[in-house]
TrEMBL record, chains A, B:
Gene3D superfamilies: NAD(P)-binding Rossmann-like Domain (3.40.50.720). InterPro entries: Epimerase_deHydtase (IPR001509), NAD(P)-bd_dom_sf (IPR036291). Pathway: Carbohydrate metabolism; galactose metabolism. This is UDP-glucose 4-epimerase. Belongs to the NAD(P)-dependent epimerase/dehydratase family. Residues 3-233 form the NAD-dependent epimerase/dehydratase domain. The lineage of its organism: Bacteria, Pseudomonadati, Pseudomonadota, Alphaproteobacteria, Hyphomicrobiales.
Length: 303, 303
């Protein structure tokens, strides 16, 4: 099928494109800029434009059968600084996309949501998809609102939305400016001989998922007829302190992190129950954390 | 205390102003226009302006200790026609209000949410405040998003938000253009000798609350230090068919409604569990439905 990947030049998007090509799909990419770490791929059609540019988006939508919406103009750690911008860019931007799709008769959409933020403080861990959505930061609030609208458009406007609630993805081609993911940020700083800062005491537990595993799930999900939310995680919790130990082993250097006060907004423990994705797509996280971090370190060293 | 009532000239707002005055508070009202059914009230300061006009809002906020946010530019039945407008006007408008309050050091806010839409299709009835928020129409999605942001602002920015999730309010001074409430719409049509239309088979059950009861709860809640959501309903479910029977008794005329196909978005059964408001505010619905409808009919006949 012909798929438009919005945000297809980003960290996750570039891996999703790889998996779509591997599955034999025709791929068109819409993004603000070309990929940062690779030249353009053979056989992929690239359209550059801003997510807020409705006409550019409509043009990009022409002739596609499904849309993968992987774009966010904000990050979990920074969206709270301007909720208005977050809502304007991402929520209204997505409604505009849905309206454009409706006008062109395109009903299939995969939306990349956030398993780490939409649930808020979890009642149970690992968290199933049926857990209430009680986001406590702007990033999660906007993602949850988009999910609600997708469900409303499914009920009333014939859309066919599937939602992937990703945990903490990591791997090659992740930005390392300090806003996107601890593994890439830490590896990049270690590689440059810099110190590592930790917010809180390092006990915060997250569910780290290698980006190729996430991309594979996205590729399977969009080509299916399934609708509704799917958690995407490893199903395993790892504390920041454990990550530091693995990084020390992988880089072969002792690490002395600098501890800083924890943020009020941090959820202390977040691990996803991924049995629904296993049941419906025969999918599970295939890359062990140690191996995934080794591969990421290899990539960081080559940059 | 000095309270700014945003939307204080509307149906619910005008009754809230009455109850605030009865409780001895100083009242300032911000609304697009003056009250439709009454002259301006003695001792109330009126400021006219649009909710989207940030500077007018900031001026109105000067000198107040608490804000009651009762405004919605959309209705449950019509918001779905333009979700983008709904988000723009109400969600971004509210974020703008919160930022203005933050800048002026005003932390107390009461937000009027919607007990009939934020829960979506309920798992249990009567619905407690702890029920997941799974709205399936735009009105409810925006209300739920605002609630999430209020909680985020409580955690991270020192706001003190209390949320009233109202069921189906009815009573004098309700608009009867057909978008706001079945009781007023039906009474107004009966009074004009017009026919009554029902979407679906009349089995839809709602929780009808007389507006003076709702206003009393709002007046108590804003002056308290309680935070978080409170359901506001009668705790009793009444079907549309039962409403028709009461209307026939009250107006003394036989009623032959015209039945139309039900809407996909309608929740079939919605009744709120109001024990939290009873426990924390000693509040409960005081007006029996029959008596409330009689009083509303009296008012409709005088218009």
């Amino acid at each position: 099928m012909k798929v438009l990947v919005i945000g297809g030049c980003g960290f996750i998007g570039s891996h999703v494109v790889d998996r779509l090509l591997a599955h034999g799909h025709a791929v068109k990419v819409f993004d603000r800029q070309m990929e940062r770490f690779r030249p353009p791929l053979e056989g992929v059609e690239y359209v550059t434009g801003s997510f807020g540019d409705r006409m550019a988006l409509i043009e990009a939508l022409a002739g596609v059968e499904a849309v993968m919406h992987l774009v966010s103009t904000t990050f979990p750690g920074t969206a709270d600084l301007s909720p208005t911008t977050d809502v304007q860019d991402n929520l209204i931007g997505t409604l505009s996309l849905l309206d454009a799709m409706g006008g062109l008769g395109i009903s299939r959409i995969l939306f990349l949501s956030s398993g780490g933020t939409v649930y808020g403080l979890p009642d149970i861990v690992p968290i199933p998809e049926t857990h209430p959505l009680r986001p406590i930061n702007s990033y999660g609030i906007v993602k949850a609102s988009i999910e609600h609208y997708l469900e409303m458009y499914r009920r009333t406007r014939g859309m066919s939305p599937v939602v992937i609630r990703a945990s903490n993805p990591y791997g090659p081609r992740q930005g390392h400016a300090g806003v996107q993911g601890v593994i890439s940020t830490f590896l990049s700083r270690l590689n440059a001989g810099q110190s590592i800062e930790i917010w809180g005491d390092g006990s915060v537990v997250r569910d780290y998922l290698h980006v190729t595993d996430l991309a594979e799930l996205c590729a399977r999900a969009v080509a299916s007829e399934r609708v509704g939310p799917y958690n995407a995680g490893s199903g395993q919790g790892t504390s920041i302190r454990q990550i530091i130990e693995i990084l020390a082993a992988v880089t072969g250097q002792p690490i002395q992190p600098i501890y800083k006060p924890g943020r009020v907004i941090d959820v202390s423990h977040s691990v996803l129950d991924v049995s629904r994705a296993r049941t419906d797509f025969g999918w599970q996280c295939g890359m062990p954390l140690l191996e995934g971090i080794q591969a990421t370190y290899e990539w960081v060293r080559q940059q």
